[in-house]
Every structure is written in C-alpha cells, then in structure tokens.
Amino acid sequence: MALAQEDLDYIKAHLGTWLAEQSLARPPVVYEIELRERMVRVEEELRHQRELIKAMLEQMEKRFEAVDKPN
C-alpha cells in the first residue's frame, strides 16, 4: 500500500512536532536547541580525539626514527 503524495506531505509537515513530543513533551524549538548543543559537544570531543591521535602518531614516528638510527 503506497501513500499518496498528500499523506507524505502531511507526515513531513508534522514529523518534527511529533518527534519533539516524544522528547519529554518539549516544544520543537527547545528540542532543536538541545540537539544543536549536543552536536557542538560531539564536535568538540571529536576535535579533541583527533588532536590526541595526531600527538600519538607523532610520538610513534619519533620512536620509530630512534629505533632506526644506527648506534
């Protein structure tokens, strides 16, 4: 059973509101702000993880160079 275009348009128009209602009955604007804040925190953590990985790789490279040096 396929949905009519009218049904799809109705669903698209109301989906955000329905999802916000499921989020502790918060208004859509509050829900959106919370999502944005969470995205910012995730982005900051990813940036931090990237910096840690970069530092770790630099240390490994130095160790490899030290091992490869002839004594």
User: Number of helical runs?
Assistant: 2
Count of the domains: 1
Series of secondary-structure elements, N-terminal to C-terminal: HH
Query: Structural class, please?
Result: mainly alpha
What does the radius of gyration come to?
25 Å
Shape: elongated
**Helix share of residues?**
over 70%
Q: Mean of residue pLDDT? A: 86
End-to-end Cα distance, whole Å, is 76 Å
* Largest pleated sheet: none
Q: Count the beta strands.
A: 0
Report low-confidence residues grouped into runs of 5 or more.
none
* Share in β-strands: under 5%
Give an overview of the whole structure.
The protein has one domain. Helix content is 83%, strand content 0%. The protein has two helices and no strands. The longest helix is centred in the C-terminal third of the chain and has 41 residues. The mean pLDDT is 86.
Gist of the model:
The protein contains 2 helices and no strands. With 71 residues, the chain is mainly α.
Question: What's the layout of helices and strands?
Answer:
Elements: H1 5-22, H2 28-68
For this entry, give a set of tags:
mainly alpha; 71 residues
